[in-house]
Each structure stands twice: as C-alpha cells, then as structure tokens.
Design brief:
Elements lengths: L4 H4 L9 E10 L4 E10 L2 E6 L11 E4 L4 E4 L1 E7 L3 E2 L1 H10 L2 E7 L3 H5 L1 H10 L6 E6 L15 H10 L5 E8 L10 H10 L4 E4 L5 H7 L5 E2 L5 H9 L3 E5 L7 H7 L8 E4 L5 H5 L4 H10 L4 H7 L2 H7 L15 E4 L7 E6 L2 E5 L2 E2 L27 E2 L7 E7 L5 E7 L1 E4 L6 E4 L6 E8 L8 E7 L7 E4 L7 E6 L2 H14 L2 E6 L2 E7 L6 E2 L3 H17 L7 H6 L9 E4 L2 E4 L4 E3 L10
Parallel strand pairs: 1-4, 1-5, 6-8, 7-30, 8-9, 9-10, 10-11, 11-12, 12-13, 13-14, 20-25
Antiparallel strand pairs: 1-2, 2-3, 5-15, 15-16, 16-17, 17-18, 19-23, 20-21, 22-23, 24-25, 24-27, 26-27, 26-28, 28-29, 31-32, 32-33
Helix pairs in contact: 8-9, 11-12
Length: about 600
C-alpha cells in the first residue's frame, strides 16, 4: 500500500501533512468545481475528500479556502527567465501572481554558453519553489545570416541534456531559418524527435505555404497576433500558445478564435513579464481572469494555464488537481477577480493572504558567467566607411510598430574619422539619421562588427548602448553622437553588461546586467526604477516612440521583419540574406 492510501481510506490514525479545506476545488478530470477538501502528504495530493477532518491531526497544517476556489498551480507555457532580471529575484512575485511552473527558453546563459549555460541554469533552479522547465537554445546551429558556430561536441552535449528531467524540448526557432532551406539545426531536431519532445516555433509573419512547411518542423507557436493566424496554426496541427505579457498582448486575437479551436490544444504564456509589470501583480492569474471575463468557459481558461501546457510539454503530474499529482495549488477569492490568496508549491505554503512567504535567492552565479563583454570600443567602430555610400546615401532601418524595423534609405553625415584625415559616414540627428552598431562581444569568438543606420528613433543627442540584445551575443549602440557611443559602450563593458545612456561625454543613466551580459541581479523594485530612469533619459533626448529600449534590444532579432543587424551586415529577414549599406534599387525613401 502506498503512502497515500491510508489517508484516502481515512484509516484511523492516518493524517495528512496539509489540508486545504472549505473551498470549491476545480477537479481537472471532470472540469467541474466541487466542494472538496484537498489532503496532501509530502509534496503530493493524497485525496480529495468531502471532509478532511478525519485525516487532520495535531501536526496537520490547515489552509482555509472558505468562500474561495482551489485551482491547479498555473503554468507559463513560454517565457525567458535568464534575461532582463534573473529568475531567482522574481520567484516571490511570480508565486504571488499564481505562477507555480514555467517553461522557459535559455536565452541568456544558454545563448552565450551553450550546454554549459543551460546546465548552470538547471542547477540554479533545481530547488526553486517555482518549477522551471527549460527548452534548449538552437541558435548556435542556425546559419541563415552568420555561419553556424555549433560544434559536433556541442551538439552531443545539448543532445545529452534532452534526457534531463527538466529539459522539455528545443527552444523557439524563427521560421526563416528552417522553411525552404536546409539548416544545421536539423541534426538537433532529429535527436529531439527521437525523444518525442516538442520543438518551439517563432512564426511571426509566417502564413500560407510557409506556415504549412513550418508546421512540419515545430510543435507549438506563440507568435500569432490575429484570430486568423491562430486559426491557421490550429488547422495545421500547431499547438496554439496564447500570449499576454510585457512584450506583446495578443489575448483579444485568441478570444476571437476560441470558438473555432479545440480548447485542449491551447496553452497560455507571458513571453516574459518585466519587473515593473510583475510588481503590479501581472501574471498567469490575470491572464486567466481576462479570458473568463471575455466569456471563455472557466474550465477552458484554467486548463489552458495548467493541464494543457503540462500535457504538451510532458510536465509529469503537474497542472491538475487529482490524487498523486504534485501539490501545486492556487487559492483565489473567486473566478471574477482571480485575486490570489494562497499558493502551495509542492505541498508547502509559499503565499499566504496574497503575500509571498519565500525570499528571493541572492547568492552569485558561478564566476564564469560574469565579465563576458570583450569589445574594442574605439571611435571608428561606430561610424561606417565612406566607400560604403560615397554620396552619403545608405540603406537604413526604419522604426515601425512593435519590434519591427523596415528598410528605407537615408542620408548619412560625412564626418572626419578619428585620425582627422579620413572621411567616414556618421549620424545626422537633425534629420533623425542615427548610427546603429553591433559588435560581437563574445570573448570566445573573433571580434567583428557592423555599423548601419536607423531612422524613426528620434534621438537628438547622445547615445544608447546595450548588451542585452536578442538572439545575438552582441553589444548594440544607437547614436546621435559617436563620441557618446564610445562612452556608453565603455560603461556597458565595464559593468560586465547591461544598458547605458551617455550625453555630452558623460553617462547619464545605466543598468548593470552582468549575468551573461543579459540579466540583472537586482531586487525587482530597483530594476524597475533604473529601467524607468533609462527611458526618462531617452525621452529627455528627444525619443518619443513606445518602449525605445525594447526597440534597441531587438535590432539584432531576425524573428520579426524586415531589416536587422548582424556583425556581417544587415539581415534582410524575408530575403534570408546579408546585405550592406548600398541601397536597394527599389527601396523607397
């Protein structure tokens, strides 16, 4: 007889370690709310009882859910836990938002350090009260714009990690890397399929025949931003991951498409919650509340944030309220407010009366993850050679909506080089033409860089530098003044990574992000305040676009069209090629 049966049988003398009493329990397999008490032994649910008084002893912890609703712990189906702010520092606030498990990319440690970085993240999160499952980074085996850097040894190391109990597949791949072309990443995918693990898609802008082809590669996608896009993914057998977070909010599209979907084929995600939003309580409970408020059946909304995600990613014994399942539970006031009162993680109370009872982990990571910025920040690197655009007319990126930068042409300024004798191409802030430079910062690779141009950003003076860029180990600057670009880039390097803004030769705001040059080790409150100070400094310098720091961080991100930065030149995203500063013949002004 297992350790749960005596409690389930209510044998004399059998007692639960913890009882959640008096609430309406969402019974996952019936998709109904029943008056039950939840009896827990160790980290597992032992039984759902009409009255748990018979198994409540003097040592039993009793949690009242009177007038409340007991739900399975909520699962974020797609996030990025090792960039911006370290997962360790966010855990208490994640729990208070109802999130007990995440499926995360390894976008910082994994991107820079490969399998070693993933192993460090797995070790670091092994005992966290928010269960973290990881999808492996495929970027080292992508060769669309730059040569693939993944070695046979790294392929073997990542493949071995696929057998780890908290590795649940391979992380997001931009469709342009795999649709209609052969790519080295297919070797990793073959090994993933052998283990029947999912591959995460990033299908922004993917539709029609391209989406049909993409559906033969990936198993889920969180990038549909319209109801038709969601329907098309579902029609092609792709598990739909609805998204609402700090980067994008696409819930309205999901709500519109819901009547045409099998509710079991839908999961919910944040795609990342930035500290300011997290401090305001945004998380998985709020996403569920919004779906219910829009008329989605409560059972469907709850399953999309728990059971469906657990089933898709193979999260054993999570996402359900049933005997034998891991005792991750969330008690909310009601389904209208979804106000989180109590949270249990593996049978322990970690949130009570809405307040987290656990502290953030603050000890440092291993030494190797720090001091990862290796760049030459000499002034010439932040201008372009005159021969690339002899008349000053150059191909440029134009800031569009969201993360998108489109292709345009611009008239760069012709400036003196650092030695005073050569002529080079530089910014002309009076006409909103800025330099946009990316330098390869990875100490393990040969240093390379490229300076292009950016319009529509609005910076009138100074420069911004950041190492916290997406899908690249780069340091990016956006500059109205190249001397300030040197100052800002040098500050980022001296901090071991992060964001800095310089004006008139001085740093006016900065934020250190020293873990892999991509994540901060700060209390969320401090991160949010310093991030706001950076945005304020940009506003003072004339920038008036929404979320300018996100725009800068995604200048290297080919997951959205149409023109992005690489160390070899511009990435022509839809053309799947690298292009230089010479304008295309048919580019509009």
């Amino acid at each position: 007889m297992n350790e749960f049966q005596s409690v389930a049988l209510e044998r004399e003398g059998a007692t639960a370690d913890l009882v959640v009493e008096g609430g309406q329990v969402y019974c996952s397999n019936r998709r109904e709310f029943l008056d039950r008490d939840v009896a827990i032994v160790g980290d597992r649910i032992a039984a759902l009882l009409a009255d748990a008084e018979s198994v409540t002893g003097p040592e039993t912890t009793v949690v009242s859910a009177a007038d409340g609703v007991v739900l399975p712990g909520l699962i974020d189906a797609h996030t990025h836990a090792d960039i911006q702010l370290l997962f360790d520092r966010e855990v208490p606030h994640l729990l208070a938002s109802g999130t007990t498990s995440i499926v995360t990319e390894s976008s910082g440690l994994g991107l820079l350090f490969g399998s070693r970085g993933v192993e460090t993240f797995l070790e670091r999160t092994a005992d966290a009260p928010v269960s973290a499952s990881v999808s492996l980074p495929p970027q080292d085996f992508v060769d669309t714009f730059e040569p693939a850097t993944g070695t046979p040894a790294e392929l073997e190391a990542l493949s071995d990690l696929l057998d780890h109990d908290r590795v649940v597949g391979v992380g997001e791949i931009d469709w342009i890397h795999v649709v209609g072309r052969d790519a080295p990443v297919e070797d990793l995918y073959e090994r993933t399929r052998e283990r029947d693990l999912p591959i995460v898609g990033h299908g922004a802008g993917c539709r029609g025949e391209a989406l049909r082809a993409f559906a033969t590669v990936v198993d889920n996608d969180h990038e549909a931003i319209s109801a038709d896009g969601i329907r098309e993914r579902a029609a092609n057998g792709i598990h739909v991951v609805g998204r609402s977070g700090s980067i994008r909010d696409d819930l309205e599209a999901l709500i519109d498409a819901y009547p045409d979907l099998d509710p079991r084929s839908v999961s919910l995600s944040t795609d990342g919650v930035w500290p300011g939003d997290l401090l305001e309580g945004f998380g998985m409970a709020e996403i569920v509340r919004r779906l219910i408020d829009a008329g989605i059946e409560p059972a469907d909304a709850i399953d999309a944030a728990s059971r469906n995600t657990a089933a898709h990613f193979g999260l054993a014994d999570r996402g359900v309220v049933e005997p034998g399942a891991v005792a991750d539970l969330v008690v909310v006031d009601d389904l209208e407010s979804m106000a989180v009162e109590t949270v249990l993680s593996e049978g322990k109370v970690v949130v009570a009366d809405g307040e987290p009872l656990v502290d953030a982990r603050t000890d440092p990571y291993p030494d190797y993850v720090y001091d990862t910025i290796s760049v030459d920040v000499s002034a010439e690197r932040f201008t372009a050679p005159l021969e690339a655009g002899p008349e000053g007319r150059v191909r440029a990126m134009a800031v569009d909506r969201g993360l998108v930068t489109t292709e345009t042409t611009a008239d760069a300024a012709v400036v003196d080089g650092p030695d005073g004798s050569s002529r080079r191409l530089g910014p002309d802030p009076a006409t909103d033409v800025l330099t946009a430079t990316v330098l390869d910062r990875d100490p393990a690779t040969e240093e390379r860089g490229f300076t292009g141009f950016l319009t529509g950003f609005g910076l009138e003076s100074g420069a911004l530098a950041t190492s916290a860029v997406w899908e690249a180990t780069g340091l990016v600057t956006v500059a109205a003044d190249t001397d300030d670009a040197v100052v800002a880039a040098d500050r980022v390097a001296s901090m071991g990574g992060g964001i800095a803004i310089a004006r008139d030769g001085e740093v006016v705001a900065d934020l250190a992000m020293p873990v892999a040059g991509a994540a901060a080790e700060l209390p969320p409150e401090q991160f949010a305040a310093e991030f706001e100070a950076l945005e304020d400094a940009l506003r003072e310098a004339g920038v008036d676009i929404d979320r300018p720091l996100l725009t800068a961080q995604t200048l290297t991100f080919p997951g959205v069209p149409t023109l992005k930065l690489t160390a070899s030149g511009y990435a022509d995203v839809l053309g799947q090629s690298v292009v230089g500063l010479e304008p295309a013949a048919d580019t509009d002004d």
